[in-house]
Each structure stands twice: as C-alpha cells, then as structure tokens.
TrEMBL record:
Hexokinase C-terminal domain location: 253-500
The EC number(s) this enzyme carries: 2.7.1.-
Organism (species): Sphagnum jensenii
Family annotation (CDD domains): ASKHA_NBD_HK_plant
Lineage: Eukaryota, Viridiplantae, Streptophyta, Embryophyta, Bryophyta
Protein known as: Phosphotransferase
Catalytic activity as recorded in UniProt: a D-hexose + ATP = a D-hexose 6-phosphate + ADP + H(+); D-fructose + ATP = D-fructose 6-phosphate + ADP + H(+)
Keyword terms: ATP-binding, Glycolysis, Kinase, Nucleotide-binding, Transferase
Domain Hexokinase N-terminal, first and last residues per copy: 46-244
Pathway info: Carbohydrate metabolism; hexose metabolism; Carbohydrate degradation; glycolysis; D-glyceraldehyde 3-phosphate and glycerone phosphate from D-glucose: step 1/4
Pfam families: Hexokinase_1 (PF00349), Hexokinase_2 (PF03727)
Top enzyme category: transferase
Family: Belongs to the hexokinase family.
Length: 509
C-alpha cells in the first residue's frame, strides 16, 4: 500500500502537468481523496503516539516517587535496588576554588573522548588557562578489547602532553596528575580505582568487565612511557557536580543529559547504610545513581522504545537512558516516522530506504527540526532531504515530523525533571518536609543542580520543557530555590578539578 502511495505522490505532482493534457477528472479526484485519507490516518497515528508518550503531572509524580523509593533501596544494601546502583564515589573533597597547579583530564564516555589540561590559580585567579583536544573513537574500538582502547587513548594523551607549552606550568619534581572521567557504571574501590560493572551507550568491551579500569589505563600509559598518574577516577556526573561546586557552593546535584544520562548528588554519609568503611570526615558522600538503568511501570514506553531496546547491544538495560538520552532520541523519532510512513503513507510510504536505516537520524537533527520556526518549516524540509533523501514533502508531512520531535523531546525532558525532583525529595530539598535526609551542611536556601551534556546545553526546547516540569512539580517556594545551572564541560574541567582536590601533593603548591 505504501509503495503504491509512493507512486501516487509522484502522480500528484505530474497531475498538474497532465491535467492540462486533459487527465480525466475522476482520476485527479481519486488521487486527492487517497491523499487526504493518508493524511487522516497519519494524524490518527500521531495522536495515538502523543497519548502513549504523555507525561501528565500525576504520572511525573509517580515516576519521581519511584525514583526516590529506589534510591532508598539502593542505599540500604548492595543490590538493594535492581535498578539504581547508588554507587558511593569515594570523592572526599569537592573543589573549593583554592586549587592551584597544572592538571590533566581524560574524558571517556561517548563516541568522542577528550584530553585536556587546566592551569589553576587558586581563589583569585581560578582557571588561568585551559586547552583540550577531542578525538573520535574508531567504532571498532568500542566493541574491541580494553588493551586496544586504552593504547589508543594513552597515545592520544602522550601526544597531547608533548604539546604542553606556554601558559602551563608543571611543578618541577612532581609527576603530572590526571583526572579520569570514565562515564560508565563502575564500582569504585577507592578514589582512584574501580571495577567496571557493565558498559552502556553502544560500548561493549567484555574483557574489561569485572576489572579495575584505572589499572588498565595506567598499564597503557606505562607502555607509552608517560609520567602521568591517575589521581581521581570519576563519573561525568561527579565532574559536573565538582565543576558546579567550584563556582557555587550550593551545588548539590550533578546531572548529565548527553549521549547518555545520569545523576549524582551529595548525601549524608549516615544515610548510606550499605557503606562498610569508616565514614568520611566531612560526613557527606557523593552518590552516583546510575539512573540510566531506572525503570518504573509509570514510564510511558511505546513500541519505538521497545524496538530500540531489543535491538541495542544491552537489551533489557538502561530503560530510562533509552527514553531520555541523546544517543536514542533521534532513533526513536526515526522509528515513529517510519511507522507512520509504512502505515499511513507518510513521505510516499516506504520509498526512502534511509528512513528505514537504524540510527540514520541523529539527535542534533531532531533539535534543529524542532527549532524550525519558519512558516513553511523549511529547515525540516532540508533535513528530510539531507538525511533521508526525501526530495519533496507537503507542509502537513513536515508538521508531523515537527510534532514527533516535540512529543519526544518533551517526554524526555519531563522524565529527566521527574528524576531530579525524586533526588531533591530524597535530600529534603523538594519543599516537602516529610521526606528525605535533612541537615545537609549546605542549606542556605538554594539548591543548585549542575547540568551538563549536549541535550541540555544545545537543545533549547528540551531545556525549557525541563525547567517548566520542575516548576510544575514543586511548590512555588521550592521551585524558586532550585536552580538548574549549566556546568559547562563539567566532565572535563570538573574532572581535572577533582584531580587537583585529590592530588597527592595537596591542593596548594
Ligand atoms: C553511564 C553513566 C554516565 C551517563 C552519562 C550512562 O550511560 O552509565 O555512568 O554518567 O551515561 O554519560
């Protein structure tokens, strides 16, 4: 049916020409009727999808309550929650701003990794200088061995260290120190060691699972003969929190909305019942939720989420991440459009092979199409042509595309907001006094949530849907006290800051 619709689309165009050659009127009418019928079917499918993805306030509250409940369970005992790992991070010192010296960071967590260096100048000068280099990870290394991956990273790092020049001042007699942002679930055994639990975001390096990731990295650094040492192993959320804290001491949460998604927060140490070691002197601990693996019966999962999950390298895992994260958003949009194409003849049915190719639509395109405010949705038209090679589209078709982007960005943003509210509730910062651990040191009225990741930084509609959902869920006073702040490059700079605050040489030289 869809293919034949494809042919008729072509006919519609030629109908203008042909009609002047006196095509029978009955034929033109039948084409028009067919087209309008397809349109109606597409609208029905769209509205069903809108309903299935809806996140009304009561549903958000259920999701955030489930998040809080799972947090409690995960803190109680190892494996207490099947979903949230609630990993203590061993980060004892968040940066204060006093840190000085030259520090490096390696940020591994998506399809690109980065090496960077920062020169810290203490309270007055803060970040005096910074440089970074971003490198795409060859796709085969994401599914290869840990030796191959780390040799590649160690080489890039060695080349980068070799370019250290003016504006960067390594302390003579000190070995250079590095923060390692490794943004996958890791069971930390100290601030600079940790065992890989499993991979996410399309990585699958089986030999690394169950092993110390810092040891693997340092061995590769050793093979390159570099004199640089890992001072801190951190999740990107923790780097983001640290970066936020460096500028604003009210920062209590770090959230990543990028390729993947996750959050960490500052918890009272005595709330972490599963902790067996002596409690940290500060009385506080940073807990990495690994909320990507959160699931709840209240999540509005659709056929597209199920397909994405089943066909991923980690089926059954990371449901929340697969509904929110940037790695999947474009793919979900594509699957919805493909279904409407197949069942209602959108874009002439199955005529575009690219539309049926997994991951052919990346999330930045979703953001661009969603931001198209032109009367004719010309940017949408251009992207449909560039990405799917769909040459000509009607306004109604483009509007459907725009709506699908809107529905899914709104859903992801509101779910992320519900997650944040769940954490705020756990620490008693959601405006309700009945729940959560009270008395965290830092309670001068504001709670800053340090945010990082491309979805948050570059997708304006996503950002504003999130903000609106937080305001909707919290009381007016609580909403005023919660500030979402972009902690730009938290996973890079924040990680270097944590290397500084955990330096073996102390923080001030
Ligand atoms: C990882 C987290 C990480 C998040 C954001 C998830 O897939 O499991 O550790 O923080 O992505 O990068």
């Amino acid at each position: 049916m869809s293919m034949s619709y494809g042919n008729t689309t072509v006919c519609v165009k030629s109908a203008v020409v042909v009609r002047s050659r006196r095509v029978p009127q009955w034929r033109a009418q039948s084409i028009a009727q067919q087209k309008s019928k397809s349109n109606q079917t597409a609208q029905i499918l769209l509205s069903e999808f809108r309903q299935a993805s809806a996140t009304p306030l009561h549903r958000l509250r259920q999701v955030s309550d489930d998040m809080t409940a799972e947090m409690h369970a995960g803190l109680l005992s190892e494996g207490g929650s099947q979903q949230l790992k609630m990993l203590p991070t061993y980060v004892e010192h968040l940066p204060t701003g006093d840190e000085e010296g030259l520090f490096y960071a390696v940020d591994l967590g998506g399809t690109n990794f980065r090496v960077l260096r920062v020169q810290l100048g203490g309270k007055e000068k803060r970040i005096m200088n910074q440089e970074y280099q971003e490198v795409a990870i060859p796709p085969e290394l994401m599914l290869g061995t840990s030796k191959e991956l780390f040799d590649f990273i160690a080489k890039t790092l060695a080349d980068f260290v070799a370019t250290e020049g003016e504006g960067f001042d390594a302390h003579s007699g000190h070995i250079r120190e590095l923060g390692f942002a490794f943004s996958f679930p890791v069971l930390q055994t100290s601030v600079k060691s940790g065992i890989v639990i499993h991979w996410t975001k399309g990585f699958k390096i089986d030999d690394a699972v169950g092993k110390d990731i810092v040891a693997a990295f340092e061995e590769a650094i050793g093979r390159k003969g570099d004199h640089i040492r890992v001072a801190a192993l951190v999740n990107d959320t923790v780097g983001t929190l640290a970066r936020g804290r460096f500028w604003n001491e009210d920062t209590m949460l770090g959230v990543i909305l990028g390729t993947g998604t996750n959050a960490c927060y500052v918890e009272q140490a005595d709330a972490v019942s599963k902790w067996r070691d002596p409690p940290p002197k500060s009385g506080e601990m940073i807990i990495n939720l690994e909320w990507g693996n959160f699931r709840s019966p209240h999540l509005p999962r659709t056929f597209a989420d199920e397909e994405v999950d089943v066909e991923s390298v980690n089926p059954g895992d990371q449901w929340f991440e697969k509904m929110v994260g940037g790695m999947y958003l474009g793919e979900i949009v594509r699957r919805v459009l493909a279904k409407i194409a197949q069942e209602a003849g959108l874009f002439g049915g199955s005529s575009s092979p690219k539309l049926f190719e997994p991951f052919s639509l990346s999330t930045p395109y979703v953001s661009k199409m969603h931001s198209d405010e032109s009367a004719e949705l010309t940017e949408v038209a251009k992207i449909l042509e560039d990405v799917f090679e769909i040459q000509s589209t009607t306004f109604q078709e483009r509007k459907i595309v725009h709506d699908v982007c809107d529905i899914l960005a709104e859903r992801g943003a509101r779910l992320a907001a519900a997650g944040i509210v769940g954490i705020l509730k756990k620490i008693g910062r959601d405006g309700s006094t009945t729940n959560g651990s009270q008395g965290l040191k830092n309670s001068n009225g504001k709670t800053v949530v340090a945010m990082d990741g491309g979805l948050y930084e570059h997708y304006a509609q996503f950002r504003s849907y999130m903000q609106a959902a937080i305001e909707e869920m919290l009381s007016e006073t609580a909403a005023k006290s919660v500030v979402l702040e972009l902690s730009k490059d938290g996973s890079g700079i924040g990680t270097a800051l944590l290397a500084a605050s955990h330096s073996q040489y102390g923080t001030v030289f």
